[in-house]
Amino acid sequence: MSELQSLETAILAAVAAASNEAELEEVRIAALGKKGSVSEKLKTLGSLSPDERREMGPAINGLKTRVTDALAARRELLQDAALDARLQRERVDVTLPLRAAPAEAGRIHPVSQVIDELTAIFADMGFSIAEGPDIETDHLNFTQLNFPPDHPAREMHDTFFLPEKADGERMLLRTHTSPVQIRTMMSQQPPIRVIIPGRTYRCDSDQTHTPMFHQVEGLVIDKQSHIGHLKWVLEEFCKAFFEVDEVRMRFRPSYFPFTEPSMEVDIGCDRSGNEVKIGEGNDWLEILGCGMVHPNVIRNCGLDPDVYQGFAWGMGIDRIAMLKYGMPDLRAFFDADVRWIEHYGFRPLDLPTLFGGLSR
Amino acid sequence: MKFTLSWLKEHLETDATLDEIVEALTRVGLEVEHVANPADRLKPFTIARVLEARQHPNADRLRVLTVDAGDGKEPLQIVCGAPNARTGLVGVLARPGDYVPGIDVTLSVGKIRDVESFGMMCSERELELSEAHDGIIDLPEDAPVGASYAAYVGLDDPVIEIGLTPNRPDCTGVSGIARDLAAAGLGKLKENRPAQVPGTGPCPVAVRLEFGDTPSLCPAFALRLVRGVNNGPSPEWMQKRLRAIGLRPINALVDITNYITFDRGRPLHVFDAAKVKGDLVVRRGRAGEELLALDGRTYQVDDSVCVIADDNGLESLAGIMGGELSGCTEDTTDVLIESALWDETNLARTGRRLGINSDARYRFERGVDPAFCLPGLELATRMVMDLCGGTPSQVTLAGHVPETDRTIEFPFAEVKRLSGLKLSDAEIKGVLTRLGFWVTGSGEGVRVAPPSWRPDIHGKADLVEEVVRIVGLDSVASTPLPRGATVTGQVLTPAQVRRSQARRALAVRGMKEAVTWSFIPQDQAEAFGGGSPALRLANPISADMSDMRPSLVPGLATAAQRNADRGYPDVALFEVGQVFADDTPQGQSMVAAGLRRGTAVMTGADRHWAGNAPEVGVFDARADAEAALAAIGVSVDKLMIFSESAPWLHPGRCGELRLGPKTVLARFGELHPRIARALDLDGRLAVFEVYLDAVPLPKGRAGRSKGAFAASDLMPVRRDFAFVVEEAVTADRLIKAARGAEKTLISDVTLFDVYRGAGIAQGHKSMAIDVTLQPRERTLTEEEIDAVGAKIRAAVEKATGGTLRT
Question: From CA A181, how far away is CA A145, in angstroms rounded?
Fold first, then answer.
């Protein structure tokens, strides 16, 4: 017995001494391999008498089991240690700066975003989006809109013209989105509810005017819409757009050739600080012009103004964007300064909706 | 239009406060732009007496004053440079701490040439009372020293400025404004219609309207002489009012015309009769004629300008400005007073062309009350006689005052129909009557006649506006627009949806959206295939905004350069906007275009610890273009790629994506270096344009089902092939050939290597592809796989002329 015991002591000592899996494997082969010391012992069992075998069998097999277990335990220990060492080696500095995700770097221009906001709001009120060309005829930009022939807006001083053609006609860059009112009324039957966002042009350039700017026009034509409806639409729009619960509005009688009665609309705000705050304060800020579509305009579109009626309004998209998002200078809109776009632009996946909120 | 509160009260009996009046003015459409009481600003300034004026010890032109402020305290020492500063002068004192508006300074104790000064004696300009600055204010001896200067001179009269819409000529006079306020319930209008002033003898100067066979530019011209006037300064009350609204008093005769211009909206002109030779002829100007006008400038006229002439030549630009030579001075003893009517359109055009913004033009071009032409002359005559004496002649009238009578059928129900406001017939009639309209009949049969001073009223809607603005828009209740009975359907058109999709897809790729001008410089337009004269503005605001853009690229490229010049060389910009092929609506189309500059590739620019960004190139541009196309629903792998494109792109690094052989959906590439040089650009630019409107609209779909999902259970098999081909063979051709070799089994072909160098002949390259075979029914045998390989080899060799690399 003492031979087996000393063998066991020696093997277990070798197992414990193995410092890596390769050494441990050598120990295993030396003990349990084909010619290993334990295997050799097992081979001797066949030559023993039954009595001896009854005694030695369990002893040798017990030795084998204990050696196997010891090897397995040692192997797991060594593997763990090896893994720990590897993990240590694989450590990196996770604070190294990442490249910005493209979707984080990209930006939507405020004008596009605000048009999407307008679309979300007016779509909810049953409006669709109409469009028209930037290069217009004098007829659609002025005449059909009831501008008298000698109106100052028709001068070169205010309006961009293209060269006169052989037949005397001069195309122009539309000075407002209103010609699309005419195009809409002439191409579809009432009831009409559209908004018309787009680029507009006037010979004007200073801190608050650029020769190109964006306007959104609204038009409702049916058999019953009146100033009360107009007020409601604009009040609801302003609340939704500026994302405030209440907004004070002041409708002032005014004058435009294409509406009658005509009004200008001021919005209550606080102008005491650096930024205009909508929905608070005691100041007024003019934000749009509107009115009942002039009977002559309705008539010019082939509709009977005693049967059909409705209203229209127009406002500056750039201007309401500036108001809502605190942008001080209109000229920066068209300068494509990446720092400005980065600051005032919107993330590509922030699509304005009413159910998810217009802005975040 | 400016007026003062006391002036308004000449025409309106009212107890309303200033605030109430201001609020009401805006409410009825006479928007108040500014209210100021000069007394507020002049509050600190008091009357003071100069006890002694001594020469300044260190300055020839300065004096040292000892001033009694009238406050019972020690006199003040003040250094003063005014030439009229003298012992005994009674003037206006500003003390340290007072804000002096005319010089925009808050005074402090100063030391001028070593002498301390405890305030200043003010000139009128320093108090913004007038332009006078030839000396300090010199008040009468008996002015109360110590008292408020503003109160003493009666400046405690608020000045109200309204922004007048062009449709309201009647409110270019204070009387008209008073009428609106009275109608709105702010008081009672004082009717002060001028009485006729009988004249003695005919007017000795005849008036002839001579327009020959051209249209008359002067419907009526009334003239009268007042003999023996004694012209001099106008009375203080008149001067005060004129000054309060920013006019400079001249002399009584001129001031009367200015006063009536603002009081009644009726411009007049006065000629010194002694300087008028012969009759007055109203006619068109003649080329070469010119007039030295009252503003001291000389104006050239032609036959589009209506003038008044006598035997000396031109005397007046009709209805706009009189001539200097026949103007009235303090020496005038006989005065001709003119009250006329002019062709508004012609007058407005003349005024714009000559650049004259006179108070007369302002009124005439809006349309003065024709019916007040003669009463205005009577009023002027009366005032001349009252202020200057004299004997009037009878009135001579050339032409005739046009009738303005017209009636409008106005069922009162119109008010409710258009405004939603429910008013009684009596209320509506009351408003219109108070505004001077005649209302007859009832119910459906109501007829309304607008007064002569309201040329803007033509139809029912105009009358509704009158009623609503006077009753107040606040009374109109907000009324919800009825909502549809169904769920709102798709609102955007497919084209609008595409723009949004392209925009967001490009932004997701790290690009920043710009909005650039629709007009670009002519040379840029020409470089990008535009520049047609038909798209060149006749009146650009500047030379670099002259041509409607044929492409978005030049605007973006110059924007990128601006960013580079600011220290941001690596930018990725895009724009979704319109370009112009001609001046028709069809010539305008929407394009999504973008560019990357420097190292601004999609994954980030510049140096980085994990690997520096490469310089941008044609493949970045193509990737952007394809991403935009994919976002709007185009199957990019069905498009044809052409290795050629616009001349503004690098000829070896550009391409086009076309649907079929002709329809170009996108162009991409590196900007041609020659174009870049012409545009003053440096650095490489990878640019693309996607022609959104060229993409056909999807056909209507029967359903929304995506069909069944069928995936094979069999393992795909992959095999690599490499072919040696000539340089000119494109990858596209090779891949297409391989793909087409066996359509049912080959599910994918990718090109993973392009090699040139050792083992490959000069002028050739090796392209390696990885072909995936997807068995459908059973696992493929080696023989079957080899058979497909042979087909691929044959197809590629046939299509490319290349050979399998072994």
Answer: 9
